[in-house]
Amino acid sequence: xxxxxxxxxxxxxxxxxxxxxxxxxxxxxxxxxxxxxxxxxxxxxxxxxxxxxxxxxxxxxxxxxxxxxxxxxxxxxxxxxxxxxxxxxxxxxxxxxxxxxxxxxxxxxxxxxx
Length: 114
Description:
The protein is α+β, with helices and mostly antiparallel strands. It contains 3 helices and 6 strands. It has one domain (2-110): Alpha-Beta Plaits (2-Layer Sandwich).
């Protein structure tokens, strides 16, 4: 089995529109159920983390800037690592991701051991 990275990207405007406590609580349950289903299949390698809103970007020549910027349409919200035998299988795992319900997307990347 290969390992794959799911990077969760969310539309900033959609994210800001869905901050009501009952909406957030419902989405959290969907995330827990979806990730629990992957874990129950023994395909969750790393449960990942949610990423905060603040950050810094290190650029060439030691230049450091603030980031990420809220003006950007898509924000990376978090990630997990899963395992699967093929892209078809890993795409099937990703299809249930709750972020798809709120205008976000899942970037799927294979992890290549060094």
